Amino acid sequence: PYYYSQLDPRWKNRRYGMSTLGPSGCVPSSMAMVLKGSYGINVTPVDTANRIYSYGGFNQKYFGASGPDLIQGMRSYGRQAVVMNSLADLNNHLAKGYPVIMHVDVGIGHAIVAHGYANGKTTIYDPYGQKFYKGQVSTSHLWSVPSQDYIDWAAGRPFFAIK
Question: What is the spatial distance between Cα 75 and Cα 163, in angstroms, rounded to a whole number?
Answer without folding.
Answer: 10
